[in-house]
Amino acid sequence: MGRKTTLLLIVGILGAYYVYTPLPDNIEEPWRLVWMTTLSKSVANLALLVEVLGINHFMNIAMFFMSFQEVPPTSDENVTVMETTFNNVPVRVYVPKRKSKTLRRGLFYVHGGGWCLGSAALFNDDFLSRRTADRLDAVVISTNYRLAPKYHFPDQFEDVYNALRWFLHQDVLDKYGVDPERVGISGSSAGGNLAAAVTQQLIDDPDVKIKLKTQSLIYPALQTLDMDLPSYRENSHFAVLPKSFMVRFWSEYFTTDRSLEEAMLVNQHVPVESSHLFRFVNWSSLLPEKFKKGHFYNSPTLGSSELAKKYPGFLDVRAAPLLADDDKFRSLPSTYVITCQHDVLRDDGLMYVTRLQNAGVRVTHNHIEDGFHGALFHHGFKIRYRIENQYLNWLSENL
Ligand SMILES: *[C@@H]1O[C@H](CO)[C@@H](O)[C@H](O)[C@H]1NC(C)=O
Ligand SMILES: *[C@@H]1O[C@H](CO)[C@@H](O)[C@H](O)[C@H]1NC(C)=O
């Protein structure tokens, strides 16, 4: 083979690898998604290369590329945007400019990014917070929190919890003109995980008198025990959030030691002493029939106790809100859950919905049949606006 032919062959294979993204039939605007995932695959591969060469951590490179999407806290014609700190945690505050005769609703928002990436300053998070403040005439607090790999569980959880507790002081609500009876929390992906976790924690917190009226969980991550759910099996190679990335995010939340990730990938990280917890994430009993179709429930393979001793966080209910018992569930506020069909995290959300319903909590479940992970944050996609409308309508009626 000549040099030219070899070169062509390599370029062809690389090109096909990049652009070839097998997509489900019902995806709207497939070329947009192919283009977006091609970009994110390139960044991920570059970050992997830099990591393999020992130059820097994967997440640091990914965060570096992401930082180009940050926008300053600029007020617009309808919303005043400012930055401050709540209990030493940096937050962005969005206050509608129009006059209000009554107290406003308050929404505490937690961004996503796998506990490793993201910030309240990212264009898409800033955009959603602005729209929420404007459309709902609400004060929106968009919180930051410390990220892995520099910080691990429970730092992310504690930052979000501390900022939320600060917001729920009567004098802070007074300062922003927020009605203490109408405060909700929202979060997407890892932010949905943190939102669900702090909402549970707040229930029994004797120091906080003001309680949340709603929680909205947008394709949240809710459990660490079973990485072999039907949604993980079906979407394991779906380019937006492949299983390998999700497992990496989960394990980075607890440690940079890759042995936890390796055990999670083969679903052998839970020790025998914790096997009783599997009942909380048993998809065989918690998933609606249609999502179980074609899948067989394998009883989990148990791992050694060593990992759980070193990194107990992954068995902690503050990291995995599905591990709470039914008593805790009964006290949760009115809940909105978005799940997407093409998402490894789909079944986490579905099981949470089942457990909330079983506990008698008022829950609205919005399953997006043509949805994929992150769909609310992909600017320019039609699906983004559809989901945003449904989400804001629910808040408008329930918060
Ligand atoms: C401000 O509100 C007006 C009236 O609702 C709307 O037409 C306009 O697009 C809003 N501006 C921004 C920047 O959202
Ligand atoms: C999960 O639920 C099924 C029944 O749907 C049951 O047979 C199985 O033993 C359960 N497994 C665990 C680990 O709880």
Automatic annotation (TrEMBL):
Keyword Hydrolase: yes
Spans through the membrane: 7-23, 43-65, 106-123
Keywords for the protein's UniProt record, in alphabetical order: Disulfide bond, Hydrolase, Membrane, Transmembrane, Transmembrane helix
Cross-referenced InterPro entries: AB_hydrolase_3, AB_hydrolase_fold, Arylacetamide_deacetylase, GDXG_lipolytic_enzyme
Domain of life: Eukaryota
Domain Alpha/beta hydrolase fold-3: 107-262, 315-375
PANTHER family to which the protein is assigned, alphabetical: AB HYDROLASE SUPERFAMILY PROTEIN C4A8.06C (PTHR48081), ALPHA_BETA HYDROLASE FOLD-3 DOMAIN-CONTAINING PROTEIN (PTHR48081:SF28)
Family, as annotated: Belongs to the 'GDXG' lipolytic enzyme family.
Protein name in the entry: Arylacetamide deacetylase-like
Organism of this sequence: Ceratotherium simum simum
Organism classification: Eukaryota, Metazoa, Chordata, Craniata, Vertebrata
